[in-house]
Amino acid sequence: MEKLEGSLMATHNPLRLGVIGAGWFASRRHCPDIVAHDDATLTALCRRSRLELERMGQAFGVNALFTDYGDLLASGQVDGVVVCSPHDLHYEHTRAALKAGLPVLLEKPLTIDPSQGRELVKLADARDLVLLVAQNPPYWSHCHRLQQIIAGALSDRSRRCRFPGSNALGVLGREPLPDDMPGVVPPTLFRGDPQANGGGFLTDGGSHLLTELIWCTDRRVVEVTCLMDDAATDVRAVLSMQLDGGATATLSNTADSQVRGKRHHSLYFGSAGTAEIRGVPFSVTVDGRNGRESVHEDDLPAVPGPVEDFIGAVRRRSSLQIESGTALHVVEILDAAYRSARDGCAVTLQTA
Question: Residue 1 pLDDT > 90, yes or no?
Answer without folding.
Answer: no
